[in-house]
Write a structure and sequence with these properties.
Structural class: mainly alpha
Radius of gyration: 15 Å
Largest sheet: 2 strands, antiparallel
Number of strands: 2
Strand content: under 5%
Helix content: 55-70%
Distance between the termini: 33 Å
Number of helices: 9
C-alpha cells in the first residue's frame, strides 16, 4: 500500500500553505469573538487535528452555538482519537505556522496569534472540501476563543 504522504489528496491537505490558510481562518474568527483577544500559540495546535480528518470535520456543527465540551460529550470517538491525531500533526502545524508567519498571514503578539488581514473566503472554484475546511477552522477558532485553553487541552486529552 502506498504511503499516505504520497497520495495526491494527502499531499494537498498536508501542504503547509493550506495549513497556514486554515490557521489564519481560525485565528481571524477567534479574534472576532467578544473579547477580541488573539488566539494563544498552544491553541493553534488544536485546530488542524479537528479540521483535516474528514470524519471529524463532517461531524462538527455548522455554528459555534454548541459548546466544544458538549460536542465532545456527544462524539466520544473523536475525543478518544484526538490526542493521537494532534501528535501526528504537530510537525505539520509547526510548518504551517512558519509558513503563515513568513507570508504575513499570521503575526505573533505578546498575547498570542493575530491575523493582520482577513483571509480570503474559499469559493466554489477552490473546491467544496477547501471551503468546508475553512468554515470548520473558523468554527474551531470561535470555540477556542470561548474555552479556557487548559479546559480544551484537558477535554481533548492532550498537553502542550
Amino acid at each position: 500500500m502506498p504511503s499516505p504522504r504520497r497520495l495526491p489528496e494527502a499531499q494537498a491537505l498536508l501542504n503547509p500553505a493550506f495549513g497556514a490558510y486554515l490557521l489564519a481562518c481560525s485565528v481571524n474568527a477567534a479574534t472576532k469573538t467578544g473579547a477580541r483577544n488573539p488566539l494563544s500559540w498552544p491553541a493553534a495546535f488544536l485546530v488542524l487535528p479537528f479540521v483535516l480528518p474528514a470524519d471529524t470535520r463532517a461531524d462538527l456543527p455548522v455554528k459555534a452555538s454548541r459548546a466544544m465540551a458538549a460536542w465532545l460529550t456527544e462524539h466520544p470517538r473523536h475525543q478518544a482519537a484526538f490526542a493521537e491525531r494532534a501528535a501526528a500533526l504537530t510537525d505539520y502545524t509547526r510548518a504551517s505556522l512558519r509558513t503563515g508567519l513568513r507570508h504575513r498571514a499570521l503575526e505573533i503578539t505578546g498575547d498570542g496569534l493575530r491575523c493582520p488581514r482577513a483571509p480570503r473566503s474559499a469559493t466554489a472554484e477552490h473546491g467544496s472540501e477547501v471551503a468546508d475546511c475553512a468554515r470548520r477552522a473558523a468554527l474551531i477558532g470561535r470555540w477556542l476563543a470561548t474555552t479556557e485553553l487548559v479546559t480544551a487541552y484537558t477535554l481533548l486529552g492532550v498537553r502542550p
